[in-house]
Design goal:
α3 links the parallel β4 and β5. α3 runs parallel beside α4 and α8 packs parallel to α10. By secondary structure, the protein is of the alpha/beta class. It is built from eleven helices and twelve strands. The protein starts with 15 loop residues before the first helix and ends with a helix. The strands form two sheets. Strands 1, 2, 3, 4, 5, 8, 9, 10, 11 and 12 form a ten-stranded mixed sheet that branches. The radius of gyration is 20 Å and the shape is globular. Bound molecules: ligand PBG and zinc ion. Zinc ion binds next to loops.
Length: about 325
């Protein structure tokens, strides 16, 4: 040879055992958080067309899915309620007998160890589909906050283990923290959707949760995809207001934000692998264009590598089974 090769990185890729030995990141089943949709009514298991494998369940049918969650070793679910009645104020969101409050009570009674994270937002409950109160076509910030506080407290009273505000109103984390504390829920953590972008990747979710805005869009409260410094401001504000954990959402087009989040704050970080990301993978896999298992696990490990401690994903049950099956 004309010259000496100094670095041979391939030495550490020589066998599966060697690759495993030097592997830097891992997706654990316990990192995964499974989102679930609960709908008013009885004996319902509705498939969601744009999210193959994901269903809306009525409370009496949730157990079949919750049993699978427990069985594969997943520790936590993120719960979204779909009410049958919607109004301007989203009153179903903060009613003690609301669909989500009743579902939480049911789940915690039957599965007391399961960590139930309750999504807090008005959009599933408002007739206009916005995440806050609307006046003259504008989404009101300050007037929305007390409703989010009420929603958080009623969900904590129902037994929710974690409160996850996803509305993107300013100042809601501090207000919710205060409301929880005043009502004796000092031990209930707030997991804030801190960096949530105005993304096209949410449309399958909006079908699933019947929460598409009736007019306009969410760009006055969710973040501009062009910005990253703004994500840092959002995160630092939530830290300041007392958030215990933060969420970056979506995940795959926002890996840089995930990485930066880990550098600017010391809180646990969740990546939200959203509905549109799930739909794209499922669609390509159903055509036989990609290997679903391989691509899903590659996406999930990328989120861990970028700095996620937890991953909210509709693939959670499949991924948990794949992780359990994989032999070194
Ligand atoms: C409610 C909420 C949304 C998602 C989570 N919470 C929808 C939205 O903001 O329009 C999206 C989740 C997903 O796409 O999987 N604010
Ligand atoms: Zn919302």
């Amino acid at each position: 040879m004309a010259y000496e090769i100094k670095t041979r990185t391939r030495r550490l890729r020589s066998s599966e055992a060697m690759r495993t030995l030097v592997r830097e990141n891992e997706v654990r089943v316990t990192d995964l958080i499974y989102p679930m949709f609960v709908i008013e009514g009885e004996n319902i298991k509705n498939p969601i067309a744009s999210m193959p494998g994901i269903y809306q369940y009525s409370i009496d049918r949730m157990d079949e899915e919750l049993d699978r969650v427990k069985q594969v070793g997943i520790l936590s679910i993120l719960l979204f309620g779909i009410p049958s009645h919607k109004d301007e104020q989203g009153s179903g969101a903060y009613n003690e007998q609301g669909i989500t409050q009743r579902a939480v009570r049911h789940i915690k009674k039957k599965y007391p160890d399961l960590i139930v994270i309750a999504d807090v937002c008005l959009c599933e409950y408002t007739s206009h589909g916005h995440c806050g109160l609307v006046s003259d076509g504008r989404i009101l910030n300050d007037a929305t906050i007390p409703l989010l506080c009420k929603m958080s407290v009623t969900l904590a009273q129902a037994g929710a283990d974690v409160i996850a505000p996803s509305d993107m109103m300013d100042g809601r984390v501090g207000a919710i923290r205060n409301a929880l504390d005043e009502n004796g829920f000092t031990e209930i953590p707030v997991m804030s959707y801190s960096a949530k972008y105005a993304s096209g990747y949410y449309s399958p979710f909006r079908d699933a949760a019947h929460s598409a805005p009736g007019f306009g869009d969410r760009k006055t409260y969710q973040m501009d995809p062009a910005n990253s410094k703004e994500a840092v401001r959002e995160i630092l504000a939530d830290v300041e207001e007392g958030a215990d954990m933060i969420i970056v959402k979506p995940a795959m087009s926002y890996m840089d934000i995930l990485k930066e989040a880990g550098q600017v704050c010391r809180l646990p970080i969740a990546a939200y692998n959203v509905s549109g990301e799930y739909a794209m993978v499922k669609a390509a896999a159903m055509h036989g264009w990609i290997d679903e298992r391989r691509v899903v696990m590659e996406n999930l490990i990328s989120m861990k590598r970028a700095g996620a401690n937890m991953i909210i994903t509709y693939h959670a049950i499949d991924a948990a089974q794949w992780i359990a099956q994989s032999v070194l």
